[in-house]
């Protein structure tokens, strides 16, 4: 199990470097003076290629999760670790290669599907930490399936929290898509969504602790 998790982390680190390398090239072409808002419009061809690249990234992570694990619960845990480590590695390698971001509160263009996601880099990093924690909790206690099983009400809260976090990233879509600047990041919305996800993780951890 430890070897499996270690290999997953190695793969995600390598993928994070690859993603950072692509962004280094993109910024050299579109932002030679350094990335900043407002974002520069791409022609349809390059925009389609970029959307395809982002979609392919998620497909690759999902494909590895399906190859590594045979159950839905295992695949989800695997994907969460892969996604979280990949995202953190991406920012680490951007810092190494571009000396960017300047701080954890530097704004970034996070994702383009299905709308433009924006926010300070700290926000997606916190999401990644939560995902990694959830995935590792599964691998550490996968033998206690009745304890780590997520109940229906917990699923509803977790999915709701994810949607709230997505909303916090998407609220500036209109201004950014129109060629403007992000107005402000709705930390209160983001924190509410993260609190919902953290509450579920804490509940599972309490069940594990009480089981002894």
Short description:
This protein is mostly helical. It has helices at residues 2-30, 44-68, 72-98, 122-140, 145-148, 152-170, 173-177, 187-211; strands at 107-111, 117-120.
Which features does this protein show?
8 helices, globular, 212 residues, single chain, two-stranded antiparallel sheet, mainly alpha
Task: Reconstruct the topology from this structure.
Elements: H1 2-30, H2 44-68, H3 72-98, E1 107-111, E2 117-120, H4 122-140, H5 145-148, H6 152-170, H7 173-177, H8 187-211
Antiparallel strand pairs: 1-2
Helix pairs in contact: 1-3, 2-3, 3-4, 4-8, 6-8
Any overview of this molecule?
This protein is mainly alpha-helical and 212 residues long. The protein has one domain (2-211). Helix content is 72%, strand content 4%. The chain has eight helices and two strands, in the order H-H-H-E-E-H-H-H-H-H. Strands 1-2 form a two-stranded antiparallel sheet. Strand 1 and strand 2 form a beta hairpin. Helix 2 (44-68) crosses helix 3 (72-98), helix 3 (72-98) packs antiparallel against helix 4 and helix 4 runs parallel beside helix 8 (187-211). The longest helix is centred in the N-terminal third of the chain and has 29 residues, at 2-30. The model has no long low-confidence stretch (mean pLDDT 94).
